[in-house]
Amino acid sequence: MRLRLPCVNRVGLIHDITQCLAKRQVNIVSLEVEQGNVFLECPYLEQEREEALIHALRKIGGVYRVETIALMPSKERTEQLNAILGSVQDGILTVNQDYLLTQCNMAAVRILRLSLASVMGQPIDDSLAGNLFVQETLRTGKSFRNREVFVDSKGGYCIVSTLPLRNRQEEVVGAVAVVRDIREVRELVHKITASRPVTFADIPFTSTAMARVVEQARLYARSDSTVLICGETGTGKELFARALHSGSSRAQAAFVPVNCAAIPETLLESELFGYEEGAFTGAVKGGKPGLFELANEGTLFLDEIGEMSVHLQAKLLRTLQDRRVRRVGSSREIAINVRIISATNRDLEKQVAGGLFREDLYYRLNVIPLFLPPLRERQEDIRLLAEYFLKRFAGKLQRPVQGFTPAALERLQYYDWPGNVRELENVVERAVNLVEGTAVEERHILLGRRPPSRQIQVPDVRFETYQTLHERLAQVEKIILRETVKRFGSARRVGSVLGLSHTAVLKKLRKYKLNQPHQANDG
């Protein structure tokens, strides 16, 4: 039975209440006094005795009324505190001046990998107290904020903040430590800062060559094996790496890209593996996590892997084999769970043969190879990509451009695109900046180098053969058909370029006994 007695604050009130209870032989389990209220907790009474006691308490001078309550104030506060501590994702621990652990929520147990039954009410472990800055806070009374620390019980890093607890005399009587799992912090940062994920649906194509590659990549995304993406500069290797990540079971974790060619060798090691405070001149205070740690549970994309030095190749191989990293200047190893996707525009097999790339690392990276075709081998995609980029840049630059003239499209089709999709994107952006009307014309297409000649080689006139004009024109027609088929590879495309029907092209090819395009290219 729990009661609340709203009352006046007078001398002897508590004495009168206890006398009333003693007279009726009712024990007091607990009694709490707050301003204007007395709270009583008594053993369970039969209804008749309970009603008689309440009636007697109401007659005590200064007692306004008697109410039944569910919980005593201290118990209610404890329940509220436990609910709060249990609802937060951060670990919270409190330690008194004797280093006894007085509070420890389940988040702290999970993050620090503790056993709640074995630590509550026990002295905090010296190593843990040191790791969490608890000793320093109790000794100096200073608070620490967002310090990255290595916790032995966890075998990894956490973010820790501390606050001293003081009494009315401003003496330090305890400390509170707030612990955050560094992976959860990184996941939160990733959710806030990450750009829109790239999926395979975001890769525009119509060619059969790209259809095969995308189909392969969709299968590879379901695996957790290492992928090596090979292709010329500008073919979209990072785009595919991001799509592989988005299609994998790691999609909710971080995708961390690093260009191995863009970072000097002296810095790349510390960027990949991180470093401890004081590891070298200029090291950030408190140290810094490496990209392997930032990508933990997610995907690390190593672009231009062929540019990595042999020294770093050895350390990367060790990391891939052991699934553990060691920060520069540290003796501790950290377990990681990262999927590696690497990319290169070099022939790594030639580099292995020349001693420029480790053979064992090559085979470790080349578990699943993915080859991206250059743009010149998928010409069917040029128009689609050009229109895709045109729409994007017209909106971005707020230009009323709606399409290409036939001559502009022909100029794009006849170029061999050494810079591949990236070069095409740049050419279209440049054209959108130059155009004044609603259509991109041939003069707006500024290419990096002259497109290959489209001039047909006319056969020499040899009078001794006594050819008629019809026979000589047939020779030229045969050359035109052969070169156009070689260029466009589709009877429908050839017909479109030459102004002939699909069936007319096929008849002429049979007439001159030329190889006919594959039917798959005519859809």
From TrEMBL:
The Sigma-54 factor interaction domain covers 203-433
CDD domains given in the database record: AAA (cd00009)
At the top level, the lineage of the source is Bacteria
* Ranges where the ACT domain occurs: 2-71
Q: What SMART domains does the entry give?
A: AAA
Query: What Pfam families does the annotation carry?
Result: AAA_lid_14, HTH_50, PAS, Sigma54_activat
Alphabetically ordered keywords of this record? Activator, Aromatic hydrocarbons catabolism, ATP-binding, DNA-binding, Nucleotide-binding, Transcription, Transcription regulation
Entry keyword Transferase? no
Kindly list any coiled-coil regions of this protein: none
Q: Which InterPro entries match?
A: AAA+_ATPase, AAA_lid_NorR, ACT-like_dom_sf, ACT_dom, Homeodomain-like_sf, HTH_TyrR, P-loop_NTPase, PAS
Please indicate if the UniProt record lists ATP-binding as a keyword.
yes
NCBIfam families, alphabetically? HTH_TypR, sensory_box
Indicate what this protein is called per its UniProt record: HTH-type transcriptional regulatory protein TyrR
